[in-house]
């Protein structure tokens, strides 16, 4: 009797419960046996320890930076599965600029976000946020910002040897930034503009724009990187805002939303770029009509296989998802917080080219990915390998 009543109560939810269990099961299998490469973001709270950074009437830059950094890290940690957050510091300690960059480089980070607070001399009352990327300063004001931030190396005992004679206060030193090649520039600038955009819309901050200047900490980090000047500690109303819970939460949220937008676009762009890479090699590989049969034989030993990636989503799909209905060899792998779904599998690249064409009407952005011994590999190298092994035949 009692049991009957319970069943009656949960019956309407039964299909829901079942589909959730399936989804959980699917996500378990998705994650299994796959190289789940985390997207790594390093959050760098500027200054710390005996380096207070800019100093206001009642607070110090290092405290504001840390508070916003920790709030940002928590937002990402809570809401972005597959993203690993690394802090350069989580408390009030001193770190050299090189050490901060080394933490990011050693972690092979995908992104470096350095958080700072600006200041101006002579009671200038300025309010607003700016975001900086590595480059040559176009104005004296911009150069001043970099000088002030770089001056922290003066707190390091051996800064002359460590930074190869760089004098943060001498404009001549900054010539090194003129001839510098930064291959991450476009990504950095893009993230910087997203941050400024969100600062304006989400936090209603005055937009002081995206700028370039010679920041040592950005120069030493080998990944897309930005430095944010949250606001002006030297302006009393700004200092109050920057130190308030509301203020620091809003600023962290603004950066967080920009981060999410960047990640989303980055995922799409990666898909597009591998697709372009594929099509340039496609003709080469498709040149030999007999490749189909041979390819399968030739690459079987190294277990190199090609699949067609049809979509990337942030959460695993239920097994009965309509979009995957009737598709063959559906598989899923995790990468940088994405669940990427593939269909088809073959050691023959051309077979997947044909499958991709067939699927093009349903999945416009579909492209080919390669796996070797179960691990995802660079598609160009995979095609190269496929062509070589085919030529040997
Ligand atoms: Zn600073």
CATH level 3 topology of the largest domain: Aminopeptidase
Report how far apart the termini are.
Answer: 73 Å
Largest sheet: 6 strands, mixed
Task: Give the count of helical stretches.
Answer: 12
Question: What Rg do the Cα atoms give?
Answer: 26 Å
Look at the helices and sheets and give the structural class.
alpha/beta
The overall pLDDT, averaged over residues, is 82
Strand arrangement across the biggest beta sheet: 2-1-3-6-4-5
Which class of the largest domain in CATH terms?
A: Alpha Beta
Bound molecules: zinc ion
Number of domains: 2
CATH architecture of the largest domain: 3-Layer(aba) Sandwich
Inertia-based shape: globular
Q: Approximately how much beta-strand content do the residues carry?
A: 15-25%
Based on DSSP secondary structure assignment, what is the total number of beta strands? 11
Low-confidence stretches: 25-36, 275-301
